[in-house]
DNA sequence: CTGTTAGCGCGTTCAG
DNA sequence: CTGAACGCGCTAACAG
């Protein structure tokens, strides 16, 4: 409502003096400072951030571009980002791309126009169009959760290959040899990495991979969720001989698969074991059932924001840094030995 | 990087002409339009949103101030808000207050400074300091999920009283007469309303309320979550005669309580029934167990955003509107008849 | 310690 | 159909 000039007039000083009071910059006599502060209080003056940002060329805003804030894995990352950013006086804009590259591009445009200081990006694909755009506008960024084809970027993610390996290895140790893998979109690096880990574990155990047992999700994110896990599970159950275990590349797929299994009258883990990527926050689960490969989501968000803020603070462009976090296998009740041969 | 003037120079026109091309305002000859567009493409020019917003006094941004985006109930609301806002070209800023009135006040200040066009507020308390601030700065807002003491505001929420009534009535119908109620902070209207519904159901059934069976959460939000439900459950279990049912005012409390029950060696629902407010999205639950009073969270977000956008669009301040949505009782396996008298 | 000048990048207003 | 002048609210860079 009221501007810096109104304050200046009321306090009988120049607007510059008011500015200095607001920003605590330069020296000001106690008297004038108090006069100014009184005027500010009287008018209920609040500085217009747009004008400040336009002038100072800094918005103190980060953007977190991810696929779906509804997914607890990303929600937790978001929380980590916000906590770190907030502690440094930065706000965070959240953007849901729904795994759509078009939406991602559109959001990046918006963010560039809004002059955000930096971007945290969970890329919808490993293509580098987005990176090109970010670079063209000299906008600092950190890639989260997924690899890009273009290397040499700051990135924070988990070791999906090793995580998948540990999950499949766990199943193999239990005695499974026919293990199906239900994964996400082919375009996402985590899908590829988890399949790689799956294959390595099989190879190490001398198990010949059966092509019919590795399925990619198709989706269209908004329609996917459980549906894909459900139909993929139905597909692998139709293969003979039937697999004795399913490795799901994320929680949603696992839940969809569980539904398919129940409908098929199969018990978990007696008839079939299930292991998934990503755990659910403990608060939302009464009694955890799924054996999972957990990723430290909050930590990912925290570290990514740290890295980005560090970049913003330091004047010189340093070497890109990759932070690769370990996963943790949490063995619970959904995995057990395969049923005795019939 | 490049400004409107750079484009103008390259195209050999004035910046005003470029502005008209960007905004599709006024008449422009096909030729110049094409020249300008070529220049824009060549420079990779993107308009500076800060400057536009400063000039036009509109940011096309809404803020959603809530207590915790990590809570699935609010996450779903957020998604509803974002979908509606996005469809009208608005961005959304999310702000987590962690149930702290101080954080809320701080965020509102930030939002005022950033000149957001409107605010969707899940108030941390029913006190009206926040409303005063919003009004003083003529910032349109809609209150979500909770009542404020000050009436006469736009609001969208569920009927907590009726929802609680239906839950407790369900328990009474099953034969329960000693029903404990574990609720949230006293300062939150939903706590009060749910207790009112609880009491009405008891009164109607001629059951004398036992003061020892109604507990308020203390918290400090970040530390609360399950912990409070856990300890509150322990407290009511110590009361003799022991209650045969627990009504939890939200999911987190319910889960904490479930943990306490399990540790106490009590089976649900054989030894004790549990009913909670708020459902979990179906995608994250393998087999829903809790009987719940579900709120249409996505709908709440959608309607609130609709209402706010309507206010922004219409020039005249209309009468405040209250949208009160019904809840839905979903009976599942956590509730059953009380154990036979020992 | 304080004020003046200038301009961030854009769009409104009014002339042509 | 196009352009010039001006100002949104604030602060950097100089005075003094």
Features:
alpha/beta; 342 residues; Rossmann fold; 3 domains; DNA-binding; homodimer; six-stranded mixed beta sheet
Q: How many domains comprise the coordinates of chain A?
A: 3
Uncertain regions of chain A: pLDDT < 50 for 5+ in a row? none
DSSP E strands of chain A, number: 12
Category from helices, strands and their pairing of chain A? alpha/beta
CATH architecture of the largest domain in chain A: 3-Layer(aba) Sandwich
Q: How big a fraction of the residues of chain A is strand? A: 15-25%
Helix/strand order of chain A? HHHHEHEHEHEEHEHEHEHEEHEE
Characterise this structure.
Two copies of one chain form a homodimer. Chain A is an alpha/beta fold. Chain A is 43% helix and 15% strand. Chain A has three domains: 4-47, 434 Repressor (Amino-terminal Domain) (Orthogonal Bundle); 56-158 and 296-326, Rossmann fold, CATH 3.40.50.2300; 160-295, Response regulator (Rossmann fold, 3-Layer(aba) Sandwich). In chain A, the strands form two sheets. In chain A, strands 2-1-3-4-5-11 form a six-stranded parallel β-sheet, with helices on both faces. In chain A, helix 5 runs parallel beside helix 12. Chains A and B meet through helix 4, helix 5, strand 2, helix 6 and helix 11 of A and helix 4, helix 5, strand 2, helix 6 and helix 11 of B.
